[in-house]
């Protein structure tokens, strides 16, 4: 099950904890642009690949130009965003993409499936990650690998998400790392 966890790093404590594990990939959330260079250098030294959530980088616009800058300057393994323009830009720069969608009702599910088909990301992150029905339907209808995230804080929820078709589970709940 551990191979299905993708640690979500929200702060320096999380980053420090990550470096003491054997994980080789993570997602950076809620980071300040001024800290990004040193964080990326540390992750590179540790051999940890990083997906950067563009929408959550403080001090940076959340558009395709910021995406291009981040890719050129920091060379992350991938980009995470809720914005189709950002996903398209990252794809055009040959960078892995994670399209994050929020499923709050059936209309959001239908709209998300349409967008996934249109944008064709490498992965789609479905929030909340405990929404196994949505994970299963998106995985079936789009054949895009799904990452489940949000509100996952026990092993049963990880297993349920994976059983529903999620390839990975993002969690900031350190006890699952």
Describe this structure in words.
The protein has 177 residues and is α/β, with parallel strands linked by helices. The protein is 43% helix and 23% strand. It contains 7 helices and 8 strands, in the order βαβαβαβαβαβαβαβ. Strands 1-2-3-4-5-6-7-8 form an 8-stranded parallel barrel, surrounded by 7 helices. The chain is globular and about 40 Å long. It comes from Staphylococcus caprae.
Quick gist of this model?
The protein is of the alpha/beta class and 177 residues long. It has helices at 12-19, 33-46, 64-74, 84-92, 106-119, 132-142, 155-163; strands spanning 5-9, 25-28, 49-53, 78-81, 96-102, 123-127, 146-149, 166-171. It is 43% helix and 23% strand.
Keywords:
177 residues; alpha/beta; eight-stranded parallel barrel; 7 helices; 8 strands; 43% helix; globular
Overall average pLDDT: 93
Calculate the terminal CA-CA distance, rounded to whole Å.
10 Å
Annotation field: number of helices: 7
Instruction: Tell me the fraction of residues in β-strands, as a range.
Output: 15-25%
Low-confidence stretches: none
State the order of secondary-structure elements, H for helix, E for strand. Answer: EHEHEHEHEHEHEHE
Question: How do the helices and strands line up, and which of them pair or pack?
Answer:
Elements: E1 5-9, H1 12-19, E2 25-28, H2 33-46, E3 49-53, H3 64-74, E4 78-81, H4 84-92, E5 96-102, H5 106-119, E6 123-127, H6 132-142, E7 146-149, H7 155-163, E8 166-171
Parallel strand pairs: 1-2, 1-8, 2-3, 3-4, 4-5, 5-6, 6-7, 7-8
Helix pairs in contact: 3-4, 5-6
